[in-house]
Design a protein that fits this description.
Helix content: under 10%
Largest sheet: 6 strands, mixed
Oligomer: single chain
Radius of gyration: 21 Å
Number of domains: 1
Number of strands: 33
Structural class: mainly beta
């Protein structure tokens, strides 16, 4: 057994060397398809379609993480100059987190069917107020304030079966009355529940359009039940004029609006069971009317082998996403950094939470990534920003889900494994 321990230590030492030496260089090809041992703040990756292996090159596996309590001395790692602290603890599986115009933090505790409000009144990086804003919901996920800007009149919530809204004014800590159902997410009486249950929502910059994300019910099947799934919808603020904005998007968990261009972006979980490195998750600017391939194709005109020969008329219409993320990372919520605290290189760039793999032979994800942009467009690469949630043995003590920019410019990250929210602030002092 001693020789196995020696090999394990040697592997971890080599992985650490690779991580440190690659913190500045851009990893591509096979080098970009590592695992948690090669993650570290500053590691850059650029996956390209030409780097992808053929389907089923490796047998797919079930490798669910062993979730453990935070080990003694373990702490999330951020780039040099950033400091990570605990913002809030003892939450109930926090998912999406959204900053209200007045700075309050709204937390979707989806499994408890409630929205919680946190308020850091004295600016010390800890909330003094922690109260349930609304309960009796139905797996709430997305949260948006209307109209966009400083003085909202309503809060919109993406339940799994409908978008609902309630009156809201800045500083309000309790919902008044029952929510009004605004956009039922059903077709012919068939609720869109089951399968991928999250429903993120976001308003356009001018407030004239509401976008709603609905994931597929299955991994890669196509039945009548999927005809209103794997889509991003657009409606008016009253729920009127509902139409498909983009389709073939397997599970668009997170939505965000670019603060300068006003473009809609999404963070997407792709399909499973055709190998360790297929199909990449992705973050992309969404093309109006665009088709992203699911379930027949992926990453452009690559045919899914489970639908061989199907839908040839769609092959040339498949859009290749802007940023390919290592397969099975489980890319969830995303946000654009519109604060002023972080250095200029982060301004108007995206952050996305990677919840982590359950179906890859060696774990990937379990981190927050930074997605650089230039003139409102993605460069194609992504950079590890917040890491350290996996032990040397491969056990997991934290799983990022939600990201939001606090009123003071810090980045907040929800963790539904540790039931807490982390705060990442730039002070020029924090060690990598």
């Amino acid at each position: 057994m001693r020789w196995m321990k020696t090999i394990q230590i040697a592997w971890l030492s080599f992985a650490a060397f690779v991580t440190l030496s690659s913190a500045q260089e851009l990893l591509t090809g096979k080098a970009a398809m590592g695992d948690w041992t090669t993650d570290a703040p500053g590691v850059r990756r650029h996956l390209r379609v030409g780097d992808l292996p053929p389907p089923n090159e490796k047998e797919s596996v079930t490798n669910k993480p062993k979730e453990v309590k935070q080990p003694e001395g373990a702490w999330p790692k951020a780039p040099k100059g950033f400091t990570v602290t605990e913002f809030a603890a003892d939450l109930k599986k926090p998912r999406v987190i959204v900053t209200a115009p007045n700075g309050d933090i709204f937390v979707a505790e989806s499994k408890s069917d409630q929205i919680t409000i946190l308020r850091d009144a004295d600016g010390d990086g800890k909330p003094e107020l922690n109260e349930v804003f609304a309960d009796g919901l139905n797996q709430p996920f997305g949260i948006a304030f209307y109209p966009p800007g400083d003085n909202p009149t309503h809060i919109y919530i993406g339940n799994t079966d409908a978008v609902v809204r309630m009156p809201y004014q800045n500083g309000q800590t309790k919902a008044e009355g029952k929510p009004d159902e605004l956009v039922p997410l059903s077709e012919g009486g068939q609720l869109t529940g089951g399968g991928h249950w999250t429903r993120d929502i976001v308003f356009s910059k001018d407030g004239k359009k509401l976008y709603i994300a609905i994931g597929s019910k299955s991994n890669v099947d196509w039945t009548k039940e999927e005809e209103d799934r794997a889509r991003i919808f657009e409606t008016g603020p009253e729920g009127q004029d509902k139409r498909v904005y983009a389709w073939g998007v397997r599970n668009p968990v997170g939505l965000a609006i670019h603060p300068i261009t006003g473009d809609l972006w999404t963070s997407v979980n792709e399909r499973d069971a055709i190998g360790d490195d297929l199909v990449p998750d992705y973050v992309t600017r969404v093309t109006e009317g665009g088709f992203y391939g699911w379930p027949w194709y992926y990453m452009g005109g690559h045919q899914d082998p489970r639908h061989q020969g199907a839908k040839p008329e769609l092959k040339d219409k498949v859009i290749t996403p802007d940023v390919l993320i290592q397969a099975h990372s489980a890319s969830l919520d995303m946000v654009f950094y519109d604060g002023k605290q972080f250095p200029e290189e982060y301004r108007n760039n995206a952050f996305a939470a990677e919840h982590g793999s359950w179906n890859r032979s060696r774990r990937t994800g379990y981190k927050v990534i930074h997605i650089p942009t230039k003139d409102g467009k993605a460069t194609g690469e992504y950079v590890d920003f917040l890491t350290g949630f996996v032990t040397d043995e491969g056990d997991v003590w934290g799983r990022p889900v939600g990201v939001t920019v606090a009123k003071d410019g810090a980045l907040l990250v929800s963790d539904d494994s540790g039931n807490r929210i982390w705060r990442v602030a730039y002070d020029g002092k924090g060690a990598e």
